[in-house]
Amino acid sequence: MKKIYLYGNWKMNMTKAETEGFFKGYAAAVEPFASDLGTGLEVAVFPAFTSIWEAGYRSKDMKNKPIIGAQNCYYEPKGAFTGEVSIPMLKEQGVTHVILGHSERRHIFGESDELVGKKVKACLDAGLTPVLCYGETLEEREGNRTFEVMERQLRAAMKGLTPEEMGKVIYAYEPVWAIGTGKTATPAQAQEVCGWSKKLIAEVAGKDVAPVVLYGGSVKGSNAKELLSMESIDGALVGGASLKPESFLEIYGAYKN
Ligand code: PEP
Q1: Could you tell me if the CB of 68 is within 6 A of ligand 1?
Q2: Which of 79, 113, 147, 173 is the least buried, fewest Cβ under 10 Å from its Cβ?
Q3: For the segment 167-178, what is each residue's pLDDT rounded down to a tens digit?
Q4: CA of 66 to the centre of ligand 1 (A)
Q5: CA 132, CA 167: separation in Å to the nearest integer?
Q6: Residue nearest to atom 1 of ligand 1 (CA)
Q7: Residue pLDDT, tens place only, 187-211
Q8: Cβ(99) – ligand 1 distance below 6 Å
Q9: CATH 3.20.20.70 holds for 4-256
Q10: Please, is 137 exposed, middle or buried when counting C-beta atoms within 10 Å of its C-beta (0-12, 13-18, 19+)?
Q11: How do residues 88-113 score in pLDDT, each as one tens digit?
Q12: CA–CA separation, 129 vs 132, rounded Å?
């Protein structure tokens, strides 16, 4: 069986108190899969900035603790950038992974491909793992522009990276029309894009790079097995279903059983 990456994007949810509550149930939820952790399963949660410390604190003595990530960062290390959070600040909180280019950042907050690319490079320079999100809107899909849009997003994010760095990025295909909508891409649609992405990344980075590509968009226990069984899908970036430890780990349980 392949290794499954189960990454939970909490978005603007989960106060400090709710984060504490999540970790009260986490150990029991992950326990049935404890022997898979490492080679068969990697779990990460991405709390809001204000709950990152709490997540680290509540999980620090856990045997099967998840990776703690952040949902965004700025590429400059410090300075006059009101409202932004730097990479050194995140590292100080124990963060090792950062979601970048999420469609909500691109479409609600107007982040450009170029800005996302600068953040990817800054994270890699600092030894953090970028979780690079990319994907098309419904309008782009219906206008047969899916691959054109994704190629633009992926090439911009990989610009200036060495092949080795390209291999360190975790890529997350998230069709915008499937995020938080309850609409999931069919396993065939998700496989098509993830397989295509791997080919494109290998074309840019070279054949020695074997990129990790996740699918995200309304993944939950009831659709996880079909999606995660697809050859080119290495895991799931999960929003809504990651807010409770049971529904989050149920995704891996559905795949395994
Ligand atoms: C996401 O936010 O990355 C996501 C995939 O959300 P959801 O699972 O809720 O669609």
Answers
A1: no
A2: 79
A3: 999 999 999 999
A4: 18
A5: 12
A6: 239
A7: 999 999 999 999 999 999 999 999 9
A8: no
A9: yes
A10: middle
A11: 999 999 999 999 999 999 999 999 99
A12: 9
- What's the pLDDT at 53? 98
pTM, entire model: 0.97
Q: Decide: 179 in ligand 1 pocket, CB within 6 A.
A: yes
Report the b/e string of 184-218 with b at 16+ CB within 10 A: bbebebbbbbbebbbebbbebbeeebebbbbbbbb
Does the beta carbon of 216 sit less than 6 angstroms from any atom of ligand 1? yes
109/106 Cα distance (integer angstroms): 6
Mutate to test the pocket of ligand 1, among 72, 102, 238 (most ligand atoms within 8 A of CB): 238
- Ligand 1, atom 6, lies closest to the CA of 239
Determine if ligand 1 sits within 6 Å of the CB of residue 174: yes
Residue 186 has pLDDT above 90, yes or no: yes
In sequence order, which residues have a C-beta less than 8 Å from that of residue 56 and are 6 or more positions away? 68, 93, 94
Q: How far is CA 207 from CA 6, 86, 130, in A?
A: 26, 33, 21
Q: Which residues are catalytic?
A: 102, 174
